[in-house]
Design a protein that fits this description.
Layout lengths: L1 H16 L8 H7 L3 E2 L5 E2 L2 H10 L5 H13 L6 H17 L4 H24 L6 H30 L38
Antiparallel strand pairs: 1-2
Length: 199
């Protein structure tokens, strides 16, 4: 067994020397195809990445991608390295959420912009060098954006499930002579014309 473990690094090295491609997950494949902001808010995108983004966003229109990029930059006024990092996170979030139709495009772009605005306000509000009153105001704004973000997430979930709710029953114990009921249970008020209201 010790001999097998010693041979493993040699096998990996041999695979590298033969240029054997590593197996990539779907997430890794998508990550490679996401364009990146590189300096001064400039987006570097290859023709292959443009086609991959169109495929991911289920569209043939470059304008849809421009809208996504705008959503990634709308609430981030900075053009420094930190700003580019936030914009890259926003684009990756867009790819992970993968909008399926026009309504999802609109909602996800709003969600991304809200997330960026929330992060911006949290950053300003948590900076101890800022005025205490300004910090309180920005933290309150961040809370408002986060509440909006929760509602947007709920709207996206509802859109994707068609408004259906799923009930999962993990464990049910029914005593002798009892009944198990899953779902809404209503009871007629006493005297309200149901069986229990008859004399």
């Amino acid at each position: 067994m010790a001999r097998k473990q010693q041979n493993l690094p040699a096998v990996k090295t041999a695979a590298k020397q033969r240029n054997v491609p590593a197996v990539q997950t779907e997430r890794e494949k998508r990550a490679v195809m996401v364009p990146t902001f590189k300096g001064n808010g400039r987006l570097d995108i290859t023709p292959e990445q443009l086609e991959a983004m169109k495929d991911t966003l289920h569209t043939d229109h470059g304008l849809v991608l421009q809208g996504a990029v705008h959503a990634a930059t709308a609430a981030n006024p900075y053009t420094d390295e930190a700003g580019d990092r936030q914009r890259n996170i926003a684009l990756r979030l867009l790819v992970e959420l993968a909008p399926q139709n026009a309504l999802e495009h609109l909602l996800i772009q709003q969600l991304i912009a809200t997330d960026a605005a929330s992060s911006l306000c949290l950053g300003i509000g948590s900076n101890t060098e800022n005025n205490p009153d300004a910090r309180r105001k920005y933290m309150a704004l961040a809370c408002q954006f986060q509440g909006l973000q929760v509602r947007q997430i709920e709207a996206l979930a509802k859109l994707r499930t068609g408004g259906r709710q799923h009930v999962t029953v993990e464990h049910v114990t029914v005593e002798a002579g009892g009944q198990a009921i899953v779902g809404a249970v209503t009871q007629a008020p006493v005297g309200g014309g149901g069986d229990s209201g008859r004399n």
